[in-house]
Design a protein that fits this description.
Helix content is 41%, strand content 19%. It is an alpha/beta fold. The radius of gyration is 15 Å and the shape is globular. Strands 1, 2, 3, 4, 5, 6 and 7 form a 7-stranded parallel β-sheet that branches.
């Protein structure tokens, strides 16, 4: 099996934005899947890479982003997925985890060929990250029970697009295998 990396997208969130109320219920549903993926990836020594928006705080770093998220409206959604010491972190400013970030370089250095994408938002950041991963020739896996959405209909359409147009393996968390 190709080397697999788990990419955790935008899970460090203070939930103080316009669509937060629409997102929270879906995050609660996806949280068990995300935590299961984190546990399995870490146990298998697969790289775990958090890619997170800096929410316009241009002097921020991963510790500050985590602190702001934990001080936000829903720390119960952040605590279970907080990065561990060996996890990697990339700050992003736009929807795609790849857009003007060092993620592709980092994944190349790690020897990753297959990416498991989890987090939020399915119809936005997960979709655009999957597209950018696909055009960079990564195999993409998106467990539907480990991604959260704002609009359920758009999320379903995004998952279909990832499967059909990007050859992503859209599956369940239980079907995801990591490096042995």
């Amino acid at each position: 099996m190709p080397r697999t990396a788990l990419i955790v997208i935008d899970m460090l969130n203070a939930y103080e934005h316009e669509d937060a109320d629409d997102l929270v219920a879906s995050v609660r549903e996806a949280l068990p899947g995300v935590t299961a993926l984190l546990k399995r990836a870490r146990a298998g020594e697969s790289p775990v890479v958090y890619v997170n928006d800096n929410f316009g705080r241009w002097r921020s770093h991963h510790g500050e982003i985590l602190d702001v998220a934990l001080a936000g409206r829903h720390p119960d959604l952040v605590e279970p997925v907080a990065p561990e010491e060996d996890d990697l972190f990339v700050v992003k400013a736009r929807h795609s985890a790849f857009y003007e970030t060092p993620l592709a370089y980092l994944l190349g250095r790690l020897g990753a060929e297959r990416l498991v994408l989890c987090g939020q938002v399915t119809e936005q950041c997960v979709l655009y990250s999957a597209l950018d991963a696909h055009i960079r020739h990564f195999d993409v896996v998106v467990p539907r029970d480990a991604v959260a959405h704002i609009d359920g209909r758009l999320a379903e359409a995004a998952l279909r697009m990832m499967s059909r147009n990007m050859s992503a393996d859209v599956c369940e968390v239980a079907e995801v295998a990591f490096d042995d």
